[in-house]
Amino acid sequence: MKCDKCTKKECSKKRKNDENASLIIDTKSPGDRDEESEFHKLANAKIFLSDCLACENCLTSRESQRIAGQCQEFLTALDLNQRCDESKHKVLVVSISPQSVTYFAAKHSINVSDVIQRLSGFLKSLGAHYVFNMMLAADFSLLESQREFVQRFYQRSQNQRALPMFASACPGWIRYAEKALGSLVLPHICTAKSPHQVMGSLIKDYFAKKQQLPPEKIFHVVITPCYDKKLEALGEDFYSSVHKIQDVDCVLTSGEIEQMMDQKGLQLTDVEPTALDNLFEEIGDMGISRHDGRGSDGFLEHIFKYAAKEIFGIEVKEIIYKTLRNKDFQEVTLEKDGEIVLQFAATYGFRNIQNMVHKLKKGKFPYHFIEVLACPGGCLNGKGQAMTEDRKMDKDLLHRMEEMYSSLPVHVPEANLHVQTLYQQWLEGRNSTKVREVLHKQYHVLSEALTSVDIKW
Hints:
It is built from 14 helices and 11 strands. By secondary structure, the chain is an alpha/beta fold. The longest helix has 21 residues, at 61-81.
């Protein structure tokens, strides 16, 4: 299925497995080919545009080059850190998403707490100085999203574009909205940054100041289940005009990390465990937990429960989903005095997204909030981890990931004392200008005149 702005006669998203090799982004420069190392093999990994929502009509040639450059810069940082010239050394920081941790646990049949320590050990054996999990960043994103929804709900009578509010955490969805939907949808998207974006700010701003390091001396790598995060990291909201650096320097998928271990002839069980690092003073990591929800940080559930209590004084203990068109299109409602007062939906996968947009265009849209994700099944099914060798969804692996994710202890953002401390010490209060600058973003209609990657499918 092609997007509304695709002008090609045939869909630019591949439907047949034998077409999967049509695009390979080669991240090696010609001079590197004679000295191929295990890291250069990683840099030559195949990245298919079908692995994300962005088709060639959405990805420019410059962006494809910059995505390829992320891996090369990572290899360069590792190489320079092993040389004598300390002026070129960088502090290598790696942040891991909880969905990626679940992938490794399911794939290797290891419990999650053991997996994260072995991942930390592997990354530090490569040269990483610090390894963090991203739960803290997700806390900020959830808290800012739920506050914004309540504000929009109260403004709905004065501002017709206040509601519905769309979630902002999925970069594939955001790219599609900016490229193809424009003013129809962009005013409705929550302005809270994604956990990925917030983590970039935490590392290059808070952590850099705490370590008394100039931000440009930090090389920040994020491990995620999603190829679209590579594109998200290139955005304006990831760029510091003061320091002229990106908040995230390189995005690696879970599958690429797995590939690195394969190239070194390692199994995860072979790696010596090392404790995760902590952004704060106390010894020991923050532990691995999950947010309430279905494997994608739980934006719908957190916002629904918060709004029910904040607006209507109703404490929701358990959320009941009603499946509509398919399992990736579900709704949740709140009733008061026999009337539906809140109506939320979870819409996963491009086909459901397009159906949702058509309803919005027709003015037949009953929902107040929609958790939108480009990947069917949500973030656990990111194309950077839940795929078979022939590029199909690995349903068995996905099922194991869902079971492992649901078994994790639930983490409540409001109960995180570190977040409350950072609001005061780092962000100068909940309603400060810095909160708007650091935790929120703006959306822009992307020019259709950009030169796209020329691919013959």
